[in-house]
Design brief:
This protein is an all-alpha fold. The protein has helices at residues 2-12, 20-32, 36-49, 54-66, 70-83, 88-100, 104-114, 121-134, 138-151, 156-169, 172-185, 190-202, 206-219, 224-236, 240-253, 258-270, 274-287, 292-304, 308-321, 326-338, 342-355, 360-372, 376-383, 391-403, 407-420, 427-434. It has a domain at 359-368 and 377-448.
């Protein structure tokens, strides 16, 4: 056996002869086991015994690329290109180097040369498709991947990439047509049944989606992806109890995931079983302490249940993970207001401004908080941080200036509000918030 003979040679310091095929096997063996030093030794001895061997030089290129020695690898490939300009392996390796340096058009050119001299055209078409993906040329990528499938009909990797391309260009119906063709050729491919079910969901054909997922599961009863997609479809149909069963089944098939626990918690929330919802959301966070969807939903539920301190902990974890998410900051501010912590609310609002995620509701919530505490001037300054005009803001400026007895400015904002809210939809809300049993000396919010 070549490998045993080579190991014996290294121990004895004797020099044995091996043919090129033997060296290929030996070098590949050391590559597979990550033994770079011995792989280099085998390459060196191999090239001493077989100078300019194409096969051994290509394996040396592999070694150099593993160590990111691209320039040295290119020198060898340039030499080989002069000697073997049409060789499949040389052009594939050149294509890989071009691809790794983001020269995708050049990579495609190399693969197109390789495809003329290969008996594995499906592989080369797949490589070309991948380069076209990098270039975001999705239509051409679809053509290339379809060529691969036309040669090897069970190429699920190309099938998945075609689905991805159709998704990127928003051609759901064409995607379904392609998957129907693929399923006709491969009726027992569980992945293609799952994929077509996902596409049916996109066009709200939920019953067809369920049929597709059922077929996928019939083919492979342990295909977790099909159970997850079927459960999500059942949620859309508000069949939460059955959806929970599917999510639970995925947990029985493999280790529990934060995602599965999150979806179960979500189902229980819609079933109005808040206790179990919280239990499963907490399990989700236990599995992945930074799983934002569970953290945010927990924070929302705890906020609704008026457990503000616990709600605060979860939303702070969300923001630590994604400080650019507007809804996280909105809930954070709302919690701070409920906790009545002036200093904390001020810091939160300042962070919202600095993060560039300010929304109208943030301004309104903070204004209302300051107004109720009697900080009318500070409240007015808050509204000035929102650039766009809005009736909610104008009404509040009217109210605040009225409170400060600056009647002329107040009237200006009342007029502005009436222009922005001509049907006075917001009037009842403003009256309720600011004028219940107050300021009887003035005709409040005269609607003339």
């Amino acid at each position: 056996m070549p490998i045993t003979k080579f190991k014996s040679m290294l121990k004895s310091n004797n020099l044995y002869f091996f043919d090129v095929d033997d060296f290929e096997e030996i070098i590949q063996y050391y590559l597979d086991y990550g033994n770079i030093i011995h792989a280099y030794k085998a390459v060196k001895i191999g090239l001493n015994q077989h100078p300019n061997s194409l096969e051994i030089l290509l394996l040396k290129v592999d070694l150099l690329l593993l160590e990111n020695k691209t320039s040295q690898a290119c020198e060898i490939l340039n030499y080989l290109d002069l000697t073997y300009p049409e060789d499949e392996d040389v052009n594939i390796q050149k294509g890989f180097i071009y691809s790794n340096t983001r020269l995708h058009r050049q990579a495609i050119s190399c693969f197109e040369i390789a495809i003329k001299n290969t008996d594995q055209q499906e592989y080369i078409y797949h490589l070309i498709g991948l380069e076209l993906l990098y270039l975001e040329d999705f239509q051409e990528a679809i053509i290339s991947f379809k060529k691969s499938i036309s040669i090897y009909s069970e190429d699920t990797s190309s099938m998945n990439n075609i689905v991805y391309c159709y998704n990127m260009i928003g051609e759901t119906k064409n995607c379904i047509l392609f998957l129907k063709y693929y399923i006709d050729e491969n009726p027992y491919c569980e992945i293609s049944w799952q994929q077509i079910g996902v596409q049916y969901n996109k066009i709200n054909k939920y019953n067809k989606a369920l049929e597709s997922f059922d077929n996928s599961i019939l083919i492979d009863e342990e295909f977790i992806g099909a159970y997850l997609e079927r459960a999500k479809t059942l949620e859309k149909l508000k069949l939460y109890d059955i959806a929970i069963e599917d999510y639970q089944h995925t947990i029985s098939l493999e280790d529990a995931t934060a995602f599965a626990y999150y979806r179960i918690g979500r189902c229980y929330y819609f079933l109005e079983n808040i206790e179990l919802s919280i239990e499963y959301l907490e399990k989700s966070v236990y599995e992945d302490p930074m799983f934002e969807k569970s953290l945010y939903m927990l924070s929302e539920i705890l906020y609704e249940k008026e457990y503000f301190e616990k709600s605060l902990e979860n939303i702070e974890s969300c923001i630590a993970s994604d400080s650019s998410n507007k809804k996280y900051w909105g809930l954070y501010l709302a919690i701070g207001i409920k906790l009545n912590n002036e200093a904390q609310v001020k810091i939160i609002y300042s962070n919202i401004l600095n993060s560039g995620v300010l929304e109208l509701k943030n301004c309104i919530d903070y204004f209302d908080f300051l107004y109720k505490k009697g900080y009318y001037i500070d409240a007015i300054e808050v509204l000035k941080t929102y650039e766009n005009k809005h009736a909610e803001i104008e009404y509040r400026l009217y109210v605040a200036y009225l409170k400060l007895k600056e009647l002329e400015i107040s009237d200006i904002h009342k007029v502005n509000a009436s222009v922005l809210d001509p049907n006075k939809f917001l009037l009842p809300k403003i009256k309720y918030l600011f004028f219940r049993n107050k300021m009887k000396t003035r005709d409040i919010l005269n609607t003339n």
